[in-house]
Write a structure and sequence with these properties.
two-stranded antiparallel sheet, three-stranded mixed sheet, 237 residues, elongated, mainly alpha
Length: 237
């Protein structure tokens, strides 16, 4: 069986829910899934199903606070290793375009410990920042990124900061952008550091390893001294 045939088989199993042994519920929706699929890619689901928790005993997991469309993207990824980030429909909370959807998917991937999904959401965010012409989606996505991920997580933050720097003149004239900055001190500090600091003090470029199991990005090695670029930057500051 080829890799594509395997993916097609998993997609078919997800669609038909045949042999399912777990039900995930969110708002008015439910998904009949397979533990062997979702537990292999998520530490959260692994703990919920293997540990002595109610979810493992009842075979039901309920997400009360999450957006159903984002949960659907997460589950879709667990089966297909991909998801559709262009769900612009009127009956969903995530109807602001790919930027908002990817920011939400990144956040839910961090929440439920699906590290490889964070990499995919980051890649899709990069594309969305380059191609998404819906400028109204930028600020909602910005707010999601700085309010739903830990301070040390630079995965999406370091994608948004260059965009802000390149468009700072236009953004500073927008009152809604200024309100977002005033309301979030961490965002204000990051923008200040990136936009106005001297080049040696700018935030280092961050990457993710290929294993998909770590929860923190790794920084890039300095070409001159072969040391961590982050440590190298701190020494020069």
């Amino acid at each position: 069986m080829s890799e594509q045939e395997l993916f097609d088989s998993l997609a078919s199993v997800k669609k038909t829910a045949k042999y399912h042994d777990l039900v995930i519920r969110c708002r008015a929706r439910e998904w009949k899934v397979h533990r062997v699929v979702i537990c292999l890619r998520s530490k959260f689901f692994e703990k919920a199903c293997d540990g002595n928790f109610k979810e493992g005993r009842t075979g039901e997991i309920t997400f009360e606070e999450d957006d159903a469309e984002v949960v659907d993207c997460m589950i879709d990824y667990l089966y297909r290793l991909d998801y559709n980030d262009n769900l612009n429909t009127a009956n969903t909370e995530s109807s602001d375009g790919p930027l908002v959807m990817n920011a939400n998917v990144y956040a839910i991937a961090d929440k439920y410990e699906i590290w490889s999904l964070k990499k995919v959401a980051r890649r899709k965010t990069t594309k969305a920042l380059e191609t998404d012409t819906n400028h109204e989606s930028f600020l909602p996505a910005l707010d999601i990124v700085w309010n739903t991920t830990p301070l040390h997580d630079r995965g999406l933050r370091d994608l948004f900061l260059p965009f802000i720097a390149e468009n700072k003149k236009t953004l500073l004239e927008k009152e809604d952008f200024m309100e977002t900055i005033r309301a979030n001190g961490d965002l204000a500090v990051d923008v200040l550091m990136y936009t106005w600091a001297k080049p040696p003090n700018k935030l280092p470029l961050m990457l993710y390893c290929d294993y998909g199991t770590c929860d923190r990005p790794m920084d890039v090695m300095c070409c001159n001294c072969q040391q961590s670029a982050f440590l190298h930057t701190e020494k020069r500051a």
